[in-house]
Amino acid sequence: IEYVECSNCYSLSSLPNWENVTVVICYENSLLTELPLWSKVSFVNCADCSSLIKLQNWNTVYTVVFSRCKLITSIPKWERVDTVNCSGCELLTELPNWQHVRSLNCCDCVNLKSIPKYRMLRCLYCNGCSNIEELVFDHILQDMMFLNCPLVTNVSPTFSRMIKESPALKYPSYVVMLQTDFMIHDLEQELFAWLK
Fold first, then answer.
1. Residue 189, SS3?
2. Counting CB atoms within 10 angstroms of each CB, which of 106, 137, 143, 183 has the fewest?
C-alpha cells in the first residue's frame, strides 16, 4: 500500500505502520491520538484530528497538514519538510528551525511568539497570530500575509507581496502589494484595485 485515505472515520482510533505508504490522508478522525512512524511517507494530511497529541519525526516527509489539531503542543524537526500547515494549533508556542521549508501556514496560532528566519521560506501566512511582534527575514519572500496581528511592529522589507493589518505598523495603506519576478493573478489585481 502506497496511498491511503481514511478521513471521517469517526470510530478509527489507530492506523497500521504501513511499510511502503507514501501518502496518508486521514483528516477529521476524532479518536486518533497518535500516528505511526511511517518510514517512507512524503505527504500527511491529518487536519481536524481533534484528539491528536503527537506527530512523528518522519524523515522522508515533504508536506504535513495538521491544521486545527488543537492538542498539538510541539512539532518535530522534519529534515526534508517543504510545506507545513499548522493553522489553528492554539497550543503551539514555537516552531522548529526547519532547513528546507518553503511554505508555512501558521494562521491563528495564538500562542506562537516568533517565526524562525527560515532561509528557504517563500510563502508565509500567519493571520491571527496575536502574540507575534516581528516578521524579519534575510531574503525575499514571495507572499506574506499577517492580518489581525496587532503586536507586529517590525517587518522585513524584503518581500514581493505583503498583505497586513497591524495597528502598530507605520504603513499608510491597509494592503501593500509589490511585484518583482512573479505574476500577479487577475484575482489579486482585482483585490488590489478594490482596496486602493
1. helix
2. 183
Give residues with Cβ within 8 angstroms of 177, minimum separation 6: 161, 162, 163, 184, 188, 192
- Locate 84 and state its grid cell: 507545513
Q: What CA–CA distance (Å, rounded) separates 94 from 89?
A: 11
Say how many residues make up the chain: 196
- Cell triple for residue 32? 486518533
Q: Which residues pair with 123 in a beta bridge?
A: 103, 143
Question: In this structure, are residues 120 and 140 in contact, taking their beta carbons and an 8 Å threshold?
Answer: no
Conformation bin of residue 9: beta by default, left when phi > 0, alpha when psi is -120 to 50: beta
Residues with Cβ within 8 Å of residue 194, at least 6 apart in sequence? none
pLDDT in tens, the chain (196 residues): 899 999 999 899 999 999 999 999 999 999 999 999 999 999 999 999 999 999 999 999 999 999 999 999 999 999 999 999 999 999 999 999 999 999 999 999 999 999 999 999 999 999 999 999 988 888 888 888 888 899 988 887 655 555 555 555 443 333 333 332 333 333 344 334 433 3
List, in sequence order, every residue forming a beta bridge with 163; answer none if it has no partner.
145, 175
